[in-house]
Specification:
By secondary structure, the protein is mostly beta strands. The chain has strands at residues 2-5, 11-18, 21-27, 49-50, 53-57, 63-66, 69-73. It has one domain. The protein has no helices and seven strands.
Length: 77
């Protein structure tokens, strides 16, 4: 498990690594966070395959968030 922050202050709360796969995750308080997956793009040049990420928040159910991320209720963790 890792945390990412670069010199431009882009950050990703958690990155889970399994083999050559990277799973980014953001943790937000809001039920419907905006642009929560924007920093996931920073991993595109990283070694390894970037998998769809999670936006962990107070949502009611698991749902698609964007092409590269899912909303994940905290209650599922």
């Amino acid at each position: 498990m890792y945390y990412y922050r670069d010199s431009d202050k882009n950050e990703i709360d958690l990155i889970f690594v399994q083999g050559d796969r990277l799973y980014p995750a953001e943790i937000k308080k809001a039920k419907s966070p905006e642009n929560a997956d924007k920093s996931f793009r920073q991993l595109k040049g990283a070694k390894g395959r970037v998998m769809p990420g999670l936006v962990i928040c107070s949502a009611d159910q698991l749902a698609p968030y964007s092409r590269d991320a899912w909303i994940c209720p905290l209650t599922l963790i």
